[in-house]
């Protein structure tokens, strides 16, 4: 009786696990969906994944089916004589060694070729730099002299070559609809190829545990048309808007200069000293649509929540609780909203 209950419990748990897995497969609006490739490099991975998946599924069914059949048909029964003992079969052993080796070789060759292809940028690729921090991504455009964060803007239909590193611990950059995962290693550089077929927003995530707020370290690639990208580059090169004297925005700028400049830069309002902690450049803060390193969508309420106590919103955050008053938060919010 106890064995029957245990068997039923095991079957129900297995069924629940299968249903839970199937419930998220292929959901088109899932923000992190590896099964919905939207670029040539993600399609390269997809073209390798599905054949391997179906071959592995067939092997699993055959092997597990044989095990189940053998366990049922040839199980020991009372009164049955002891079966003849077999100590080996050279032909079978060679067969089940050679066949798996051939299967593994057929998978290894395109896999190695794909890894090389996905990490070797084309000569005409547009260069960007991605730097991982706890817990946000910094983006630099070396040809343009632009330094931004949270959202990587790229031209749709054009290859982008990202040179990546980390300022602190190991991170992993993952935009599943555009490419696979790639490590950001302190003191080293790695390459990642990105290309989006169509304009759109492609969400991502740090895929390597990197501390308390690892799960809140989000990423986004925003693909735009060539014309929009050219206009965006031009806008990013513009300095921050100067608020009129006596306005709430001007008061917010004063709060920024007094409380935020140890970590943050707004061009040309201030430059962070070299010894200070490196926080995101906020020159065009409102262009991103996200705050707290991509964790919260922008709204006045979310910004006030973030400014009032950053470590409470994002555990372990290096942005401290500055004990800002509500008046200071309102003024700082008004100023930040001018940074477009």
Q: Which characteristics define this entry?
A:
340 residues, alpha+beta, Immunoglobulin-like, 2 domains, five-stranded mixed β-sheet, 8 helices, 12 strands
What are the secondary-structure elements, in order, as H or E?
HHHEEEEEEEEEEHHEEHHH
Helical fraction: 25-40%
Number of strands: 12
Q: Assign the structural class, choosing from mainly alpha, mainly beta, alpha/beta, alpha+beta, or little secondary structure.
A: alpha+beta
What is the strand content? Answer: 15-25%
Give the CATH superfamily of the largest domain. Cupredoxins -  blue copper proteins
Which residues sit in consecutive blocks of at least 5 with pLDDT less than 50? none
Biggest pleated sheet: 5 strands, mixed
- Please name the CATH architecture of the largest domain: Sandwich
Mean pLDDT: 87
Strand line-up across the major sheet: 3-2-1-5-8
Query: Could you tell me how far the N terminus lies from the C terminus, measured between alpha carbons in angstroms?
Result: 70 Å
Q: Could you tell me the radius of gyration in angstroms?
A: 27 Å
Shape assignment: elongated
CATH C-level class of the largest domain is Mainly Beta
- Total count of helical runs of at least 4 residues: 8
Total separate domains: 2
For this structure, the CATH topology of the largest domain is Immunoglobulin-like
């Amino acid at each position: 009786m106890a064995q029957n209950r245990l068997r039923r419990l095991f079957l129900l748990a297995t069924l629940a696990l299968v249903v839970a897995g199937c419930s998220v497969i292929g959901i088109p609006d899932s923000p992190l969906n590896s099964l919905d490739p939207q670029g040539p490099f993600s399609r390269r991975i997809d073209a390798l994944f599905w054949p391997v998946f179906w071959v592995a599924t067939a092997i699993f069914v055959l092997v597990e089916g044989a095990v189940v059949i053998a366990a049922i048909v040839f199980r020991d029964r009372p009164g049955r004589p002891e079966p003849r003992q077999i100590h080996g079969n050279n032909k079978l052993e060679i067969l089940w060694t050679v066949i798996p080796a051939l299967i593994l070789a057929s998978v290894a060759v395109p896999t190695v070729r794909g890894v090389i292809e996905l990490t070797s940028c084309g000569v005409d690729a547009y260069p960007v730099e991605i730097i991982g921090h706890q817990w946000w991504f910094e983006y630099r455009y070396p040809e343009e002299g632009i330094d931004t964060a949270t959202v990587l803007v790229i031209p749709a239909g054009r290859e982008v070559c990202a040179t990546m590193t980390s300022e602190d611990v190991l991170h992993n950059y993952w935009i599943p609809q555009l490419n696979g995962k790639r490590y950001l290693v302190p003191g080293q550089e790695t390459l990642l190829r990105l290309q989006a077929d169509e304009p759109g927003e492609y969400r991502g995530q740090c895929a390597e545990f990197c501390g308390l707020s690892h799960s809140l370290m989000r990423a986004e690639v925003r693909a735009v048309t060539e014309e929009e990208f050219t206009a965006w580059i031009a806008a990013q090169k513009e300095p921050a808007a100067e608020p009129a004297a006596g306005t709430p925005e001007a008061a917010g700028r004063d709060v920024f200069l007094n409380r935020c400049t140890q970590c943050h830069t707004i061009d040309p309002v201030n430059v962070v000293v070299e010894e200070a902690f490196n926080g995101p450049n906020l020159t065009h803060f409102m262009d991103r649509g996200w705050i707290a390193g991509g964790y919260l969508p922008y709204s006045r309420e979310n910004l006030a929540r973030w400014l009032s106590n950053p470590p409470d919103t994002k555990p372990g955050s290096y942005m401290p609780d500055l004990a800002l008053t509500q008046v200071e938060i309102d003024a700082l919010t008004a100023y930040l909203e001018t940074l477009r």
